[in-house]
Amino acid sequence: MLALRLKRIGKKHQAAFRVVVGERRSKLKGDYTEDLGWYNPHSKKMEVKADRVKYWIGVGAKASDTVHNLLVAHKVIDGKKIPSHKQSKKDATTTEEKPVTAPVVGEAKAKEEAPSAEPATEVAAPAEVEKPAEQAA
User: Fold this and answer.
1) pLDDT tens for the chain, residues 1 to 137
2) Shortest CA distance to 18 belongs to which of 30, 27, 5?
């Protein structure tokens, strides 16, 4: 399967990338089918052959998440961006909606202050029965 992806070029700490089409299983530093353009992350500039990008996508090549997002941002292709980083399991469990079991504090106060239609009948708690002190042996 063919893929559009970034191939790193440039010196240390001065990364630049080529946008290339190649076999998805091949090494990033290995051979590629066609060079479509370049991207410089420091200046955020990108130059690609838009017609060739559309051709390769049309024949079935898939863009990597990062390349897809760059092409959408530079309006080479239409679509929504893809989240390129997965959500961690810890974050995924905290975003789930949990049912609320405890009443809200404001509702409890409103119930106490509101007059009720029923007469207030309070049940007296049973009086504590004093136990006789046990005799020391």
Assistant:
1) 999 999 999 999 999 999 999 998 888 888 899 999 999 999 999 999 999 999 999 999 999 999 999 999 999 999 999 887 776 777 666 555 555 565 556 655 555 565 555 555 666 666 666 666 666 55
2) 5
Q: Which residues, including other chains, have CB under 8 Å from residue 29's CB and lie 6 or more apart?
A: 7
Domain count for the chain? 1
Two tokens at 66? 């990062």
CATH classification at residue 14: 3.30.1320.10
Answer yes or no: is 36 within a domain.
yes
- C-alpha distances out from residue 104 to 107, 109, 112, 114, Å: 5, 9, 13, 16
